[in-house]
Structures are given as structure tokens and as C-alpha cells.
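Fold sample X.
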Amino acid sequence: MLCLCMPGYAGPQCARCAPGFYGNPMVIGSTCQPCHCHDNTDPNMLFSDCDGLTGECHSCMHNTAGTHCEICAPGFHGDAVTAKNCTSKTKRPLI
């Protein structure tokens, strides 16, 4: 028997989270939540941008880091989430 899964769920009985979501629907009270990587992961890796159980983002890009690619990587500064402008701290402006 195949089920028509709600958004975020996958599998023959909707017993796992769909790609781009994380959680453990087999645990009572747990749900599948969308990955929150702040668009700082490779868009070509949409289906593997975060860990399926923990939601931790994989392969942060654009000089970002953190569990959800929410901070600038070491040696960079700026706003990783809204402005998306993590730049090198050693970069000097052109005169």
C-alpha cells in the first residue's frame, strides 16, 4: 500500500522526511521540518543540503559557516543571512 504523503514526508508509508527536510517522523511528536541553510548551500545539492535527522547544513558556501550556514566563516565578516555579504577581513579597498 502506498500513501500520498504530506509535504516534507516521503517513503511508501511516509515514514521518513523528504529531501530538503529533517526530523524523525517515527518518533511520537516529531515532524519533518524544512532545512534552514539560508540559501548558503549549493542549489544543485537541494536534496542533500542538510542532515536528514539533525537539520545541520552540509557544505556551506559563500564564505559562511555554522550549523545553518548562519555566520561568516573564520576570517570573514558581514551578514551571512540577510545581506549575504561575508567578505575577507584582510581585503583592502581599492584607492
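Fold sample Y, listed below.
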Amino acid sequence: MLFNRETDYALRVIKNLHTDIPTSISSLAEGEFISEAIAYKVARKLDKGGLVKSMRGSNGGYMLTRPLTDITLFDVYQIMEPNSFVNECLRGNSNCPVNTGHSPCMIHAEFCRVQNNLNNDLKRRSLADIIAAK
């Protein structure tokens, strides 16, 4: 499982936002060397997901809805990649080719364990902790 590029961009955008001062898309894009179109697309997804809010007007921009200490990699991952799993069979609506129709295959439980461990690891530290550790 790999994070997609959009998730990487989202993390880079978030680290440049504040809870009290709106930041323009052009500033976010310039600060992270990404196009304004990509920064806007990412900011809109984060806005829909509730991690950021947009402020209109000449002094508008995007702001965090909560401090970086309260945001984890898991929060961003869930917004940017809501249907991403370590294996298709974990989606719930996917048909496993090995499934006999009665129960999942013997590897399914292991995929569940791996997915749970990944989710727990992504929840473990806040973005503030991660940024401070660099």
C-alpha cells in the first residue's frame, strides 16, 4: 500500500496552515512548489473532510479547523484515500476469487490484522509531533 501523491500534497498543505490566520492558495502552492490548481483541489477535499475551512474575501484563504496536535496521518489518509485498503477483500463489497461463498479465505484474517495495525500506526502521532521531529 502506498499513499498517493495527492495525500502527500495534502500533508504538505496542512503543515503550512494555521487555526487563526487564513492562508491563500497561492501562498500554499508557492511554499510547497506545487501548482495552484493542485493546492486548490487538495484544499477543497480537506475542506469537505472537515480538516480545513475556507474563508472568502480579500483576506481569505484556508485555515485549520483544529490544531496540528489534534490531526493525525490517519485523519488525512481517510479524507484523501477513503477507499484504500491493503487488499481488495477488505472493502466489504468485493468478491474474493477464493471465497467459497460461506466464509473468507484463510488469508483474510491476516489482511484484517495488517490493516488494523496500519490504521493504529497512522493514528499514533499527531502531525505536530511528526513536523517537530524533522
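Sample Y note: Helices lie at 5-14, 25-32, 36-48, 73-80, 108-124, 127-132.
Also: Residues 3-130 form a domain with the Arc Repressor Mutant, subunit A fold (CATH 1.10.10.10).
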